[in-house]
Amino acid sequence: MMLHCQKIGRELPPMLRPATADLLTRHASLLLDWVDRYGSPLNLIWPQALKENLAALRGVLTENGVRHAIYYGAKVNKSAGLMRTALGVGAGIDVSSLYELRDARRLGADGARVVATGPAKTGAFHRELVGCGALISVDSPEELEDLIGALPARTSPQPVLLRLRPSDQSKSRFGMPADAIAQCLARLSGERQLRFDGLHFHLSGYRWESRATALSEAAGLISEARRMGFSPRMIDIGGGLPIQYVDPIKYRDHLAAQTTDDYRTGKIPESFYPYGGSFSASDWLHLLLLAEMAQGRSVADYFTREGLCLAMEPGRALADQTAISVFKISRVKALGPDTHVIFVEGSSFSACETWFASEFLIDPIHVPAAHVPAARPSLSATPPGRAYLAGHSCLDEDVLSNRWLSFSVAPQAGDLLVFANTGGYQMDLLENELHRHPMPARLCVAGDAQGQPYLIPDTVEEA
Ligand SMILES: Cc1ncc(COP(=O)(O)O)c(C=O)c1O
Q: Magnesium among the record's keywords (predicted)?
């Protein structure tokens, strides 16, 4: 049984892959068994979805004749199954810590498949990156000096990118402005142990237009580097490709109809992720490749004619539809004549958008514990008319949804609430062991020849 919670008339049901929808409908009793067995919240992963996402992006790049390298942004999710799948289909991995690097290596990545990003790499991280010849995106002149200091004598040249901070991002602490890039190039020209492979940037926000502008700035620096005798081979445009979580028209209508009364806080959050944006990641990439750079050349033309590889590090876009997070309801508590709070086993650290003063604007799915008896009231008609969702901690802020939600069938202890499409940061960015609750279980879902779902461990060790 699958029932959406909703703002009546302005529902935001999640888009679901067939395998996920099937689990929530045909195999709901199996899901209830899994939660009994592995605890709540339970994070379920479909690595196959990452393969499909990767194939879609590759299709756009290939269609446009652009040589490319896609690095899966491993920071988006701690799942080993997702990293293993990305490597299995020939993607690289973007690592931002020693531990992501070690997992990638244990899953079979050689250094040539790894790019390391982030502004605060430690000496130990540098040493292991150099040890395997991974590509290092250097964030600052200071990092360049540290890296040079960490190079062992007589290694083969260590490949580096220089991370650009485009001129319209002057408040960012990531990357360096064009003059600092020029300074690093001058330093590199006297340094035989390092090989300049190209430029990198990663921008916040989800607009392809800002990437096109940054590329124009990068193109000037690539020409400058060539004049200095370097042979750059790539520009890495980072991540930031969008996901469509919900139908764009429903999303637009929902935003337009929102009122302060929809939130228990009496306030509409100032910003939301664009959950129902107009473009899929593939549309976005297509638009970027068509965007105009200098002299009327498109981005695709630029890369082809300059013989450059377009690298990218999508995290969220590759994690699209790869996961759900399942919470068991522990109690439904009345707050007033028609308002309730639904407590779940688990916390908002496992569904964390509220910690960013925002909201995961996708209706959770209500899976009743057993066949719904005719006697179970409809809550749109009877109290509680609406409810918000809270976690099991003693923190007042531990709220999974500040939105008042309505239910077509009264939720009860033992029922499940399923957050769909949580693979992109939502499910595990902030997870922790507050109150010494164990970390949520995470397992991969596979299907047998008859389409019956089963679970496999999601560990680095698992074959
Ligand atoms: C350097 C870098 N690359 C890639 C990503 C992935 O971004 P997204 O998940 O939006 O694709 C991030 C995210 O913070 C990042 O900092």
A: no
